[in-house]
Structure formats: structure tokens, C-alpha cells
Specification:
By secondary structure, this protein is mainly α. It folds into 2 domains: 3-26 and 33-114, no CATH class; 126-156, no CATH class. The protein has 6 helices and no strands. Helix 1 (3-25) packs antiparallel against helix 3 (51-67), helix 1 packs across helix 5 (99-114) and helix 3 (51-67) crosses helix 4.
Length: 156
């Protein structure tokens, strides 16, 4: 059961690295998605302004961070907003939600749930090592600052 979040993080990280690198490498076997005119206009504007290049760099960086266990939480902080934006474009502009997007969101939720203590510690003291949920209630980095959160680290 403990391997499921690790596998989910690896799959999510590899997917974002693959699609980020595909922006430059143009792998021939990746089908080009069909978008509505509204979504095409928005994606075209992002491409023409250079914003899409910035997002693709963040996808690759976030994917690498997700693969490394020690930096997984920071990868979630980068990939999370990108996934929300992809979902919003699919829902509001394309009026459809592809299975790949749903799959990536499910993988992200699995990883997020498994790292909820570390996410709490980032909020509390800035470290991402994870707190002692159920043990001493403090972060593994030794911080006793519990003022920033009332979640798993603070408020015990």
C-alpha cells in the first residue's frame, strides 16, 4: 500500500517531463489534441507570448521534483496549479474532460494525500520533510513553531 503513492508520483512526474519535453522535441508519435476555437485561441495566445514556454519549463522542473522523494512536495506545489489550469481549460473552453487529465488529477490527489503531513510542515515551518503526525506533533526538521497552521503539525 505504501508503494502506490510512490508509483503515482513517478507516473505523474514522468508524464509532465514527457509532455514538457515534447513541446521542444516534437515526438512524432504523440497525437495533437483537438481543441475548440476558444481553447485554440487561448493556447495560441499563450504560445505567441512565450507564456507556454514558461509553463513547459515548470512542467519539466515539477516533474523532476515529483520523481525525487525528498522534493516531492515542492513538485506538487509546481504541478498543482498547472493541473488546475489544464482542467479549467478543458471544462470551460473545450467543454470536455479527457481521460488523461482525469488520470493525472487522480495521481496528483494520491500523491497529495500521501504527503499531507509534509504539506502541513511546508505551511508551518517551511521544511518539506514531514511532521511527526501522531508522534510528537512537530516537524521532522526539529521546528517547534506551530503558529502558522492548525492542521496536522499545529494545534495538537
Amino acid at each position: 500500500m505504501k508503494k502506490i503513492p510512490t508509483i503515482a508520483a513517478l507516473l505523474l512526474g514522468l508524464a509532465f517531463i514527457f509532455f514538457g519535453v515534447n513541446y521542444w522535441a516534437k515526438f512524432g508519435f504523440v497525437p495533437k489534441p483537438v481543441h475548440s476555437p476558444e481553447a485554440s485561441a487561448m493556447i495560441g495566445a499563450m504560445f505567441n507570448s512565450g507564456y507556454l514556454t514558461f509553463v513547459k519549463v515548470l512542467e519539466v522542473v515539477g516533474g523532476v521534483l515529483l520523481i525525487l522523494p525528498r522534493t516531492r512536495v515542492w513538485g506538487l506545489f509546481i504541478i498543482g496549479p498547472i493541473l488546475v489550469n489544464i482542467l479549467a481549460i478543458c471544462i470551460f473552453l473545450d467543454h470536455q474532460t479527457p481521460g488523461l487529465v482525469i488520470g493525472l488529477i487522480v495521481l496528483a490527489l494520491i500523491v497529495t494525500w500521501s504527503r499531507r503531513c509534509a504539506l502541513c510542515c511546508v505551511n508551518t515551518c517551511g521544511c518539506s520533510s514531514g511532521c511527526g503526525c501522531g508522534t510528537n506533533g512537530g516537524c521532522a526538521c526539529g521546528s517547534t513553531d506551530k503558529t502558522a497552521s492548525t492542521g496536522c503539525c499545529g494545534g495538537k
